[in-house]
Structures are given as C-alpha cells and as structure tokens.
Design brief:
There is one protein chain. By secondary structure, the protein is an all-alpha fold. Helices cover about 50% and strands about 0% of the residues. The protein is globular and about 35 Å long. It starts with 15 loop residues before the first helix and ends with a helix.
C-alpha cells in the first residue's frame, strides 16, 4: 500500500489489473460487485460498462477502501 505522498489516482482509463496491483484487497470489492477474475487487459471503464456498474461510484468505493 502506498503512503499519501505516493497516492495513486484511480481513473476509468486505467487497467483493472493495475487497480488490483495498487491494492490487492480490492479483490473483495470486485467480488461484492459481481466482477469475476479474467478481466485481462480491460480498463475500468470497459469492465464497469460490461457489468452495468456506474464507473464513478466504483472508483469512489475503490478510493475510499484504499485510502
């Protein structure tokens, strides 16, 4: 996990795998939201759209859970 000086800004254009790389505990969030593993190189935007999840809400949850 990073410190405040190294805070990563999550965005819809980043790969979902990079999000998990920043905080592997977000796998719990993915599970709760019905997002399974196997997203490969897809971005957060692409995964949220395919799952019918509001991207901004998803990013907010990930940000709060991480920081």
């Amino acid at each position: 996990m990073s410190t405040d000086n190294e805070r990563i800004v999550f965005s819809g254009t980043m790969k979902l795998a990079d999000l998990i790389g920043a905080n592997y505990q977000l796998l719990n969030v993915l599970s709760r939201m019905g997002i399974g593993l196997g997203f490969g190189e897809l971005t957060i935007n692409e995964v949220c759209e395919s799952q019918g999840i509001d991207k901004d809400s998803f990013l907010l949850i990930c940000d709060v859970y991480t920081y």
